[in-house]
Specification:
Length: 375
């Protein structure tokens, strides 16, 4: 029997994700949830939803969250961590408010939250915290006793997140034809966001020049590129590039786009490209369509050999990293001295989002932070 690990004062973990449609009839209602308040016509949503319809109207993200949920439960049980794990989504069933209600009715009062976004940004952190505040407000209106909620810190540079991505890049390199491998380029990809949102990401002291969002991705890219050099002897050039832009054309977003980047690399004489989606926890729609479909089609048009490396998904090392993050936060809550585990130059992220962290244009209440109305 494993030793019993102490997660107190916490009594449950909530896996919080974006959500996605699970059939053709779900696509437009799902997109209505995602774009609520923007006044986008249904016909336009049907156009946007074509990416989903190419895959039968099913996003892979829910199945991947089910796999991660099982990986976490398995890891916790094998290591003696008695902490039930629940799952809720921002935009599709199981909805966050419904899951939180279930947790409260099950008697949980100190809840940790794992968001399926590793980096600092409004959409990757604060918006989840706003969703948590909305859910708590709904439960309060129902007369339920509210739990205290804390969010696990950003884990972009935790070894359990980085090591699987290193292995993915190495496997993709090995899969390239031998005659192009030594001249390959690594394109580290992440979701493009408006430059204004990037500049304002992270705590106030990190704002400017891409903010914490760009800085954190660059730190991970350096870690992976260094590991590739150490393990293969290849000094491969690399660049952080972006994908999945969805905003109005007149608003500046982070660039270059991956397809433009492939054209540039081909023109520069690069022999092959490994696309490494370091900004994504799992292979959801942005990976399946924007990389595996659109970018690979562009590469084929250019005659440029490409491989796409694996995301972390439900890798056992990631599940172990979550266990480590839980025990780290629990120890700190109990007043113990804890050394957070982190690689790279930036060190471990803050445990509590400070006031002014990843602000939005229209401030809303956000839970699990220094400015939370539900502290």
């Amino acid at each position: 029997m494993p030793d019993v690990l102490d997660a107190s004062p916490y009594d449950a973990l909530l896996l919080l994700s974006f959500g996605g449609p699970e059939g053709p009839d779900d696509v437009v209602p799902f997109l209505e949830n995602v774009t609520r308040g923007r006044g986008i016509p249904t016909e336009r949503l049907k156009e946007v939803g074509q990416h989903y319809f190419l895959f039968g109207g099913v996003s892979p993200i829910n199945d991947q969250n089910r796999a991660l949920l099982e990986a976490l439960r398995k890891d916790f049980a094998e290591h003696g961590l008695d902490l039930p794990v629940y799952w809720g989504n921002r935009n599709w069933a199981p909805y966050l408010t419904d899951t939180l209600r279930e947790m409260v009715r099950d008697g949980h009062r100190r809840i940790l939250v794992l968001a399926t976004s590793a980096y600092a940004s409004y959409s990757g952190c604060r918006q989840y915290r706003e969703n948590l505040a909305d859910a708590l407000a709904a439960l309060e209106a129902e007369g339920l006793e509210l739990p205290k909620i804390d969010k696990l810190r950003h884990y972009f540079n935790h070894p359990g997140f980085v090591e699987p991505m290193i292995d993915g890049v190495l496997e993709s390199l090995a899969d390239l034809p031998e005659d192009v491998r030594a001249g390959a380029h690594i394109a580290f990809t992440t979701h493009s966001i408006p430059t204004a949102a990037a500049d304002a990401s992270g705590p106030v002291e990190d704002h400017g020049d891409g903010g914490a969002y760009v800085r954190q991705h660059l730190d991970v890219a350096h870690l992976i590129a260094d590991a590739v050099r150490e393990r293969t002897g290849l000094e491969l050039p690399w660049q952080l590039v972006y994908q999945s832009r969805s905003g109005a054309p007149h608003i500046p977003w982070l660039e270059p786009d991956i397809c433009d980047h492939l054209e540039e690399r081909k023109a520069a004489g690069v022999s092959a490209v490994v696309m490494a989606p370091i900004g994504f926890v799992s292979d959801h729609m942005e990976v399946l369509y924007d990389l595996d479909t659109e970018a690979k089609a562009k590469a084929q048009e250019l005659g440029l050999p490409v491989r796409r490396s694996a995301t972390v998904g439900a890798d056992p090392r990631f599940a172990a990293a979550v266990r480590d993050l839980v025990l780290e936060r629990a120890g700190l809550e109990r007043g113990q001295e804890v050394t957070p585990c982190a690689l790279g130059a930036l060190g471990a992220s803050h445990q509590l989002c400070p006031v002014g962290c990843c602000p939005s244009r229209a401030p809303r209440p956000a839970a699990a932070g220094a400015d939370s109305p539900y502290a």
